[in-house]
Amino acid sequence: MIAEAGAGDLIEEHGCIYLYKSERGGEAAARDAAFREKHGVKLERLSAQEVRDLEPHLAPLYRGGIWFKDAYVIASPERLARLLARAIVSRGGQFIAGVACDLRVEGMSAVIRANDKVLSADRVVIAAGAWSRELAAKVGDHVLLDTERGYHVLFPQARELLTRPACYPEHGFYMTPMADGLRAAGTVELGGLEAPANWKRTMMIRKAVKTLVPSAGEGTSEWMGFRPSMPDSLPVIGSSPRTDRVIYAFGHGHLGVTMAGITGQLVSELVTCARTSLDIDPLRSDRTL
Ligand SMILES: Cc1cc2nc3c(=O)[nH]c(=O)nc-3n(C[C@H](O)[C@H](O)[C@H](O)COP(=O)(O)OP(=O)(O)OC[C@H]3O[C@@H](n4cnc5c(N)ncnc54)[C@H](O)[C@@H]3O)c2cc1C
Fold this sequence. Notes:
Residues 10-270 form the FAD dependent oxidoreductase domain. It comes from Sinorhizobium kostiense. Keywords: Oxidoreductase. It is a single chain. It contains six helices and 16 strands. It has 289 residues and is α+β, with helices and mostly antiparallel strands. The strands form four sheets. An eight-stranded mixed sheet has the order 3-4-2-11-12-13-10-14, with helices on both faces. Strands 6-7-8 form a three-stranded antiparallel sheet. Strands 9-16-15 form a three-stranded mixed sheet, with helices on both faces. Strand 12 and strand 13 form a beta hairpin. The longest helix is centred in the first third of the chain and has 16 residues, at 23-38. The model has no long low-confidence stretch (mean pLDDT 96). Flavin-adenine dinucleotide is lined by residues 99-100, 127-131, 150-152, 185-186, 225-228, 250, 252-258.
């Protein structure tokens, strides 16, 4: 779909690196690496010198790292979304902007009310991220969806300083070279959908980036985002247990972009009543948690 949408040049394939500073961090990284390798993840262990050769602008605070070779970056998720949307419209799809505030099943149809519009369809897909809980409740499904809030700071002058995403797990955020600059984003805050943002978190990210990439310059464009998270870290993908007119696709937590492709495929299979290409029973909305 990326290729069909003409978005291939947004994909940058240089893997990503996890770094560690202490012997203890190295031991934890080695355990993680062994586990991941067992599950087919391609990776390479790096000495401090090898990290330096790959990323000379990182302050040499590391003892070593792990290079995940298959990871790739979408240089601009916004541009990708726009190109995918354009491809959908060119094939006859339609976008109708509005806030869905009611959802009902009437006979053979699912009916959505959004602002002053009423839309009726054979099937409705609820993919409203952290806000999906309320919509699922409209058809009587109670899901334990919450939000893990994360924070972002962009360093516009630092685009060229890293070739691939780098992170120290102990700092809780990634530094990723994107089209607009170096994106430092991450941390986890359990603060719900309503509480104001806590900008101390972005101050902490700014301070840490100064230490980790000393020439990164000043950060701009701060934001807080709502990861839609389930208690067991698995998404909800599948029909409502009450009606196959309503299909759920939310709760992807930290990995919603990573899992977007497979989620889209599964949803298209559900909508067309085809056999799903994965067993999605563990992802049902009424699973025991
Ligand atoms: C700081 C940060 C860094 C991240 N980094 C990564 C990463 O590197 N890789 C990765 O894979 N994932 C990452 N994630 C996670 C990823 O962003 C989420 O998992 C993903 O956005 C979830 O996608 P979604 O479509 O389910 O929800 P969202 O992206 O939240 O989209 C839901 C949409 O539904 C709309 N909506 C809500 N309610 C209604 C309604 N009633 N009517 C109409 N529309 C509605 C919202 O406005 C929103 O546009 C990161 C998240 C954060 C916060």
